[in-house]
Design a protein that fits this description.
Pfam families: DDE_5. By secondary structure, the chain is α+β, with helices and mostly antiparallel strands. Helices cover 25% and strands 19% of the residues. It has a domain at 183-200 and 211-254 and 268-296. Strands 1, 2, 3, 4, 5, 6, 9, 10, 11 and 12 form a 10-stranded mixed beta sheet that branches. The chain has a two-stranded antiparallel sheet with strand order 7-8.
Amino acid sequence: MFELTDALLCAQGPVRSPVELSMEPEFRRGHGSVYAALDQGRIDAGGLRRLLLGVSAAARPGEPLMFALDITPDARPDAEYADERVMVQVRGKGGDKFLPGWPYSLLVGVQWGDSSWVDPIEARRLRPSQEHTDVTIEQITGLLADLESTGRLTGGDPPPLIMLDAGNYATDISHALTGRHVQVLVRLRATRVFYADPEPRRPGEMGAGKRHGQEFSCSDAAKRYAPDIDLTAGSARYGTVRVRAWKGLHQKLTRTGRWAGHPADERLPIVRGTVLQIVVDRLPDGRKPTKDLWLWHAGPVEVDLDLVDLLWKAYLRRFDQEHFHRFAKVYLGMARAHLSSAQATDRWMHLIMAAYAQLRLASPHVDDLRRPWHPRPEPGRPLSPYRVRLGFRRLRAKLGTPAGSPKLTRPGPGRPKGSRNRPKDKRPPYRKTVTTGNEHRE
């Protein structure tokens, strides 16, 4: 698999399939060994995650480490014999579609700077029996444990900042991470409704006290009150940026979804956090924004003006992960394996993450072998992942490879005489049935 990764990095064009990498000079074995390595190879996923975490970029002094989590689909609608497929959401010009495939939750490190580089950490596939929220929580808790074991996080460091896109249940994730040294920043849909704490009870007032106070609506400006923090800043890409923050808001939970199994004799929890509204003058391409950006923040830190200024800037860096997804799919063949085994596809994804990490580490060491029609890079600006890949073959010739030389073998005995083909069984995708947990029972 070392030579397969080398061929992946040194190929001059987009990767069409893993077997085509056997034609690259860096791959010295037969084409059959490509699929044999993916099918029978062994990769320590935990060790690889800790290794990639150890070479990720450090945080700026006094600021938290920043990470982003997002789902990317590997749609396989025609792979009738592929195992463990579920329904994945695929975005397109004609609207979103749900197709059979494998969803992967990708964890990357986000950094400052004038580039779109990220630090790939982990690619974890969602099994048919797993929920998206549960996998997200497991990845975050595993990340915290790895940060402590590798010495990247100590008791005096700020809590790491985990950024998530819309579609994640911000309240559920925040409640599961309560008491941990981490803060989450989740994008909200504009239809979300929150509530402030109720007013203190009057002396002598009887009955159970109210749990929810004044209503706060992200979509209705008439149902908002004055923010606790109001910040105005300037940005070269977005013009004037105004950020408002409301502290101590919570959602009204119901006994559905993750809370369906909550004990009937116990009240649902109150999960408080800060809601942020980000309003910009323009988008980077010059268009006017059609809606505001809403964020949810929760963590063991005091929300002040400096933190609010950090949060809105940090979340805009989360979009670098989408550039990573696009580059990995177009040039590194992330969705080009077309394997029938989900475990073999997991190994291919691990190789993609390791290959991109090598590109980032090689960025300051490769020669700029741009094409004649490519513009010159700006002084002091790092090369893009595409430019680094163009010059990686020359760097690899100097560094060598950890793979051993292939050994000569004799032809095998071949197929036994009289044996017959055993066709595989078709494996339909798993389809989840959503239950609310509050059905009426006699």
